[in-house]
Design a protein that fits this description.
Blueprint lengths: L7 H29 L4 H38 L5 H34 L3 H14 L3 H16 L4 H23 L9 H25 L16 H33 L3 H37 L6 H19 L1 H5 L1 H6 L5 H6 L1 H26 L3 H25 L4 H25 L9
Helix pairs in contact: 1-2, 1-6, 1-7, 1-9, 2-3, 2-4, 2-5, 2-8, 2-9, 3-4, 3-5, 3-8, 4-7, 5-7, 6-7, 8-9, 8-15, 9-10, 9-14, 10-14, 14-16, 15-16
Length: 445
């Protein structure tokens, strides 16, 4: 599809495969954490914390390919299909170099890093062990991100759903076999969870490559013409993506710091928070999927010269997003302890987590609105504005977190209010910018 329209059907057609893709990627960490709950609290905490740290460099890569997605969507809106293939190929080239650097850094320094920042030596050692193996899948994660950006940017996100379902199924099966042991396979515990995740990334990549080979329409994007390194394209990618890379880094690293602060309050709070993070991640996906669709559709509409339709589009997606979040989060309000107990066999932990779960429920409702405005700003190409908004809001987030964990003796639920503060602030600023209409003068050459 070369150009998109703003109907509800078009929104769902683009967003549902993205949702499936994000769900499967999130489930990799969530399933790892869930399976490890039957192994031990400390191992579960290490896997959850390690998965979060993995997301730091994963989302930095996502920031880069999000820039590629914005440019691809703009070229599709302009009808310049021949320019899509070279953008994709050069994006993949940069991402593979990035993956290699990440693997090197993890192998050389991750053990020392965790030993310095964590109080628990056991959690530090186990987290490092998990990441040594988990990061082996980074090249495949990088390629999967490139394919996702390509398909979302070209409004053909169906292959994302297929790849993601396969990846999630592989992860679940391998988690059971490798963590607990199966047949002649000995139980590997935490290391088994890491290997399962890395192999599931590979399976997703193989699906994307198979689709590219078998699907005839794929050739219309002139990918063969793009098998050259083009400095001009790479320079443009970094021009658009650098603020998004920094924005994603600040965003996820602030969450990483949030958990690091909580670890200082005790292993009990840390273990509960790791499970809360898994629950939170699952329910957030619909808002992020609709946000990604918003990003692509806004950029495409600008490419078509239909800026006047963007306001109505954003409002339409916000209504959909709020309805979905409100509906799927009902278990948080009515069955909080049952929901939490899926991840642990300790009923006292589930009881202690109830009020924090209610806070998460409120934060998600705010997110359903805020994230759509924020991704609309990104879709306009004004990624520096996103970075400025993110930096300011993260400052508030970390100040509140530091105060409640280091200086005040408050409950875990009060600490988690930081999420709601963050959601309100960045949604307010993004909405204000979109209403200002200053984005209409932005061009991507």
């Amino acid at each position: 599809m070369q150009k998109v329209n703003t109907s509800i059907g078009s929104i769902f057609k683009l967003a549902i495969p993205i949702y499936i893709g994000m769900l499967s990627n999130t489930l990799i960490g969530v399933v790892d954490t869930g399976f490890m709950g039957r192994v031990g609290v400390l191992s579960q905490s290490a896997v959850g914390y390690g998965s979060l740290f993995y997301m730091v460099y994963y989302l930095m890569g996502f920031g880069f390919v999000l820039g590629a997605q914005i440019i691809i969507a703009r070229r599709m809106g302009e009808g310049k299909i021949r320019r899509v293939g070279p953008i994709f190929i050069n994006t993949a080239f940069v991402m593979l170099i990035y993956a290699a650097l990440i693997i090197l850094l993890v192998l050389l320094g991750i053990q020392t890093f965790f030993s310095l920042i964590l109080n628990s030596e056991i959690i530090a050692n186990q987290t490092a062990t998990y990441l040594h193996i988990r990061t082996a899948g980074m090249p495949f994660s990088a390629l999967n991100l490139c394919f996702m950006a390509f398909f979302v940017g070209t409004a053909g996100s169906r292959p994302i759903g297929i790849s993601s379902i396969v990846s999630a199924m592989v992860n679940v099966v391998l988690d059971y076999m490798l963590i607990y042991g199966w047949g002649s396979i000995k139980p590997m515990g935490l290391e088994g969870a890491a290997w399962a995740s890395a192999i599931s990334d590979l399976s997703g990549t193989l699906v994307f490559i198979g689709y590219a080979i078998l699907n005839q329409s794929f050739s219309s994007f002139h990918l063969k013409e793009g098998f050259y390194i083009r400095i001009q394209i790479i320079r443009q990618l970094f021009s658009v993506s650098t603020p998004l890379i920094l924005q994603n880094f600040f965003s996820i690293f602030s969450w990483f710091l949030f958990f690091t602060f909580i670890e200082k309050t005790g292993e009990r709070n840390f273990g509960i928070s790791v499970i809360l993070r898994s629950i939170y991640s699952m329910f957030m996906i619909s808002a992020f999927a609709l946000g990604s669709a918003t990003n692509s559709m806004v950029s495409n509409l600008i490419g078509q010269g239909r800026q006047y339709e963007i306001g109505a589009l954003v409002k339409r997606i916000i209504r959909i997003s709020f309805f979905f979040i409100a509906t799927i989060s009902l278990p948080i309000w009515f069955f909080p302890e049952t929901l939490f107990s899926i991840f642990t066999s300790d009923p006292s932990m589930a009881h202690e987590a109830v009020h924090a779960l209610y806070v998460i429920g409120v934060a998600m409702l705010i997110l359903s609105i805020s994230n759509i405005y924020f991704q609309a700003v990104s879709g306009t190409g004004n990624t520096m504005v996103n970075l400025k908004i993110e930096a300011f809001c993260i400052g508030l987030y970390l100040l509140y977190t530091a105060a409640t964990t280091q200086f005040l003796n408050v409950s875990l639920a009060v600490i988690w209010v930081a999420e709601a503060i963050y959601m309100i602030s960045f949604g307010f600023l993004a909405r204000r910018y979109m209403l200002s209409k200053r984005w209409m003068s932005k061009h991507l050459e």
